[in-house]
Amino acid sequence: MSLRYALISLLRVGPLSGYDLQKQFQVSVGHLWHAPDSQIYPELRKMEGEGLVVGEDQARGERGTRRVYHLTEEGEAAYTRWMQDPLPYARVREPANLKAAYLEAATSDAARAFLADHIRHWRGELEQWEAELVRIDARENPMLQRRLAVTDPRDHDRTVAFKRFGYEGLVARARAEIAWGEQGQALLDSLYGPEDAHSAS
Amino acid sequence: MSLRYALISLLRVGPLSGYDLQKQFQVSVGHLWHAPDSQIYPELRKMEGEGLVVGEDQARGERGTRRVYHLTEEGEAAYTRWMQDPLPYARVREPANLKAAYLEAATSDAARAFLADHIRHWRGELEQWEAELVRIDARENPMLQRRLAVTDPRDHDRTVAFKRFGYEGLVARARAEIAWGEQGQALLDSLYGPEDAHSAS
DNA sequence: AGTATCATGTAAACTGTTACATGATTCG
DNA sequence: CGAATCATGTAACAGTTTACATGATACT
Prior knowledge:
The structure is a homodimer.
Chain A: H1 2-11, E1 16-17, H2 18-27, H3 37-49, E2 53-60, E3 64-71, H4 73-84, H5 95-101, H6 108-137, H7 142-149, H8 156-192
Antiparallel strand pairs in A: 1-3, 2-3
The structure holds a DNA duplex.
């Protein structure tokens, strides 16, 4: 359900082809709401069916075409409604915490591998988001530049501040996950001994 | 995919009827992996089809029956495999952060309502999980007691420690979400003024 | 001529949500 | 005898993932 609003977020700065949209998606709003291209094309068609966007076929070379999507007033209205309405919160469903709570059923090696993997995963995410924060501050992200180009200059700081805010939440999340993983490693050290099967070679 | 392992986590301490399982689920592992009862019954049937559990129909009164599920060796093996294998990590998909990043499209009132709601939601979750931590420490959660009853006393502390660890991660998560929401409120104050439409009555 | 990248999807399977549906038993 | 709770689902829909599938154009 959020995918369409992520797509509208991009289309609000101007028309884009499905392909461009998909590419821009990966490097901007896709950090906040991941979606593969195979989901984006059908969703655009569906949104077109509901009147939120209109697609315009453009010739490309001799035979090729590309479909450029424009946001309609109805699409803009749907976006505004989404912004004004409360977000429905889903109950938590965390595989990592589920597994962690029953880790006595794993070998200590598997437990260590699980935590190392958890930390590795979130460090990777953290890196992405921090890099994005740097690009936001420098205002060098291409979609952000296009957005600022169609925004009243008095609102530039606010626009940048909200983008920053969105990513700061994810950065905090990643840091919390990493800290939790490290806390788990300390717990394993205390339960099984610090070197546990990795000392002797 | 995690639902079945959440269910096996409970069945590992002994057989349970679908109904009991569902009830125990809500107050224990359901905090880590939410699922409605309408999902639990079909999943049990599916697991039975795959040989992970066997269901035994028991008479109840004159006409009623209840189906008691036992974990099979195959089910136990599937659980062990899940414990040993690395968890697949899904890319992030956070509606709240998505919305936050584009909050310049909302009115300041809607933005404030969104943050208040976010904080309210996570405070509620936090309360649940902290209460669960207290019950874990007191070892008074019924499923935990049943688990300890079938566990070697030398492993009791470890079992409790991992349960605690699982919930601590969620508590940290909730605290991070609340802190982020408050940071957002401060941001709104700085952008729109601290009292903004809520001062005069 | 070959490679990168532009360009767009379909199909099947899986997972999860919501609403609806029904009836039995136990306790006061 | 009425209410709580025991007991078990189905149906329809929404959302997501994965694998497959194809071909055009631009650049070197």
